[in-house]
């Protein structure tokens, strides 16, 4: 019985440890992604794009034939693939509801029929504990 309890405890701890987000190590090599179709988030689309990263930040976005590839350490071929900066969940309550059982934290449900003052930009909780948990799926914000 003792061995079963220890095994269950070890299994529980392994699941809880794997659920934690681990930050990536600092970027020490520059990376260039070329050949893909880049969707910039502004509605603009660049076919045969190049996106460069240096020191953990994007430092180049443009056409693949315009970039100087020798300035980058690693080159990734993304031909035939689509590149997105991150997804925004539009039909969601992420950042608008923290605890469903607490009325004060449910900002997606406002009272009354005429609500000209209600704007999600003001109600969005930037300190939400939920938003970082969906980033592992590519969602930047709700």
Structural description of this entry:
- A hairpin with a 2-residue loop joins strand 4 and strand 5 (57-63).
- The protein contains three helices and nine strands.
- The protein is 18% helix and 23% strand.
- The chain has two domains: 31-85, Urease, subunit C, domain 1 (Roll), CATH 2.30.40; 87-142, no CATH class.
- The mean pLDDT is 75.
- The protein is an alpha/beta fold and 142 residues long.
Q: Low-confidence segments, ≥5 residues, pLDDT <50?
A: none
* Largest sheet, strands/sense/barrel: 4 strands, mixed
The 3D shape can be described as flat
Beta fraction: 15-25%
Strand order of the largest sheet: 5-4-1-6
- Average pLDDT, to the nearest integer? 75
Element order: H for helix, E for strand: HEEEEEEEEHHE
Structural class: alpha/beta
A few lines on this structure:
The chain has 142 residues and is of the alpha/beta class. The protein contains 3 helices and 9 strands.
How are the elements arranged and paired?
Elements: H1 2-18, E1 31-34, E2 37-39, E3 45-46, E4 49-54, E5 57-63, E6 74-77, E7 82-83, E8 87-88, H2 120-123, H3 131-134, E9 139-141
Key attributes of the depicted protein:
single chain, 142 residues, alpha/beta, Urease, subunit C, domain 1, 2 domains, 4-stranded mixed beta sheet, 3-stranded mixed beta sheet, 3 helices
């Amino acid at each position: 019985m003792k061995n079963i309890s220890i095994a269950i405890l070890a299994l529980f701890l392994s699941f809880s440890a794997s659920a934690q987000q681990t930050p990536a190590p600092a970027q020490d090599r520059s990376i260039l992604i070329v050949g893909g179709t880049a969707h910039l988030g502004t509605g603009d689309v660049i076919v045969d794009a190049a996106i460069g990263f240096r020191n953990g930040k994007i430092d180049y976005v443009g056409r693949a034939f315009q970039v100087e590839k020798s300035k980058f350490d690693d080159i990734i071929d993304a031909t035939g693939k689509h590149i997105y900066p991150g997804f925004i969940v539009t039909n969601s309550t992420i950042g608008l509801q923290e605890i469903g059982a607490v009325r004060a934290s449910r900002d997606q449900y406002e009272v009354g029929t005429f609500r000209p003052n209600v704007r999600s930009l003001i109600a969005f909780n930037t300190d939400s504990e939920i938003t970082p948990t969906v980033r592992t799926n590519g969602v930047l914000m709700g």
